[in-house]
Automatic annotation (TrEMBL), chain A:
<keyword id="KW-0813">Transport</keyword>
<dbReference type="InterPro" id="IPR025383">
    <property type="entry name" value="MrpA_C/MbhD"/>
</dbReference>
<dbReference type="InterPro" id="IPR046806">
    <property type="entry name" value="MrpA_C/MbhE"/>
</dbReference>
<feature type="transmembrane region" description="Helical">
    <location>
        <begin position="53"/>
        <end position="70"/>
    </location>
</feature>
<feature type="domain" description="MrpA C-terminal/MbhE">
    <location>
        <begin position="120"/>
        <end position="172"/>
    </location>
</feature>
<feature type="transmembrane region" description="Helical">
    <location>
        <begin position="30"/>
        <end position="47"/>
    </location>
</feature>
<keyword id="KW-1133">Transmembrane helix</keyword>
<feature type="transmembrane region" description="Helical">
    <location>
        <begin position="6"/>
        <end position="23"/>
    </location>
</feature>
<feature type="transmembrane region" description="Helical">
    <location>
        <begin position="155"/>
        <end position="172"/>
    </location>
</feature>
From TrEMBL, chain B:
<keyword id="KW-1003">Cell membrane</keyword>
<dbReference type="Pfam" id="PF04039">
    <property type="entry name" value="MnhB"/>
</dbReference>
<feature type="transmembrane region" description="Helical">
    <location>
        <begin position="18"/>
        <end position="39"/>
    </location>
</feature>
<dbReference type="InterPro" id="IPR050622">
    <property type="entry name" value="CPA3_antiporter_subunitB"/>
</dbReference>
<feature type="transmembrane region" description="Helical">
    <location>
        <begin position="88"/>
        <end position="111"/>
    </location>
</feature>
<keyword id="KW-0812">Transmembrane</keyword>
<keyword id="KW-0472">Membrane</keyword>
<dbReference type="GO" id="GO:0005886">
    <property type="term" value="C:plasma membrane"/>
</dbReference>
<dbReference type="InterPro" id="IPR007182">
    <property type="entry name" value="MnhB"/>
</dbReference>
Length: 178, 155
């Protein structure tokens, strides 16, 4: 049952990714991309990563879709009857080669849920799992790592988001109001 | 409330009573859910980042329902940047507080209060939530602005 669901989900994700790439209408592409993000967020839940799934659903399927829609509202729809974009053979070959090269890394990964994967045997992971509650008093180990053990990293990320965001706001606001 | 499209070239904004009523009803729940995700990150999945995005979505919904320009005028230009700045500042203050008290960076136990670590982590999550919601709101307004300038050519 679970396996059938996972296969259906993967087919849905790959299918919506292909639709995103091939549709000629940008509005349709964005809707397909949103469906893709939603599928990916469910994949994260299957992989026991609900924190990442929640982020993907909120950002990928929610906010990004709205930002894309706002952006294409400033463009014009392509004329013509075709619904599917004509594929450039050169680009197709390069893309397939690139995906093939990246796919070789997949075989280096341990199977999902394997007891020998680095996640299970690693000393650091086990230390976090055993001591997170007594040392940080929070039940969610992800939060404990994020805000306590690796708090300095998180501060760095927060500052990166801050500077990137303020930079974008400055540049775009300047363009908008001049 | 929603006279932003009067005497103006067409924009993506449709003045739909259905959307307005829906947004008016679900906004408080979405806001509560965002805060829940933010504060509940310590005990289950979720956290400042996810909660911040959900809280930021409220402004997106209001913009969709009542017109982006109207919402922007209502929120004002300073609030998003202020949220982001105060979030980073709060994070840095929480982090460096223990250093001043003789501990190391983010060593919550240096604060001599009960459950210092727990509350410290909650505050950090809240600060991250402020940053993220501010960025989402600001990006939305900035990307949506200029729409009325180009609206005529696109429609």
């Amino acid at each position: 049952m679970n396996e059938a669901l996972e296969i259906a989900l993967l087919v849905f994700v790959v299918g919506s990714a292909l639709v995103t790439a091939l549709l000629r209408d940008v509005l349709g592409s964005i809707i397909a991309f949103s469906a893709y993000s939603l599928g990916i967020s469910i994949v994260w839940v299957f992989l026991r990563a609900p924190d990442v799934g929640l982020t993907e659903a909120a950002v990928g399927a929610g906010v990004i879709t709205v930002l894309f829609l706002l952006t294409i509202a400033k463009t014009v729809r392509p004329t013509g009857e075709r619904t599917v974009e004509r594929v450039n053979p050169g680009a197709l070959i390069i893309t397939i080669a690139f995906v093939a090269v990246l796919s070789t890394t997949v075989f280096a990964l341990p199977p999902v849920g394997s007891s020998e994967s680095a996640v299970v045997t690693d000393n650091v992971t086990n230390y976090y799992l055993e001591n997170a509650y007594t040392e940080t008093e929070v039940n969610n180990v992800v939060t404990a790592v994020l805000a306590a053990y690796r708090g300095f990293d998180t501060l760095g990320e927060a500052v990166v988001v801050y500077s990137a965001g303020v930079g974008i706001l400055l540049v775009l606001q300047k363009e908008v109001f001049e | 409330m929603s006279d932003s499209t009067d005497e103006r070239t067409p924009t993506p904004y449709v003045e739909s009573p259905i959307i307005m009523a829906t947004v008016r009803i679900i906004t408080p729940f979405v806001f509560t859910f965002g805060l829940f995700v933010m504060f509940h990150g310590a005990d289950s999945s979720g956290g400042g980042f996810q909660g911040g995005v959900i809280v930021g979505t409220i402004v997106l919904m209001l913009g969709m329902a009542f017109g982006i320009e109207t919402t922007r005028n209502w929120v004002g230009p300073k609030l998003p940047v202020g949220l982001v700045g105060s979030g980073v500042l709060a994070f840095i203050l929480i982090g460096t507080g223990p250093v001043l008290l003789g501990g190391s960076f983010l060593e919550y136990h240096a604060y001599e209060i009960h459950h210092a670590s727990k509350y410290g982590i909650e505050l950090v999550e809240l600060a991250i939530g402020l940053i993220v919601s501010g960025i989402v709101t600001g990006l939305f307004f900035v990307i949506a602005s200029g729409m009325e300038d180009n609206g005529g050519e696109t429609a």
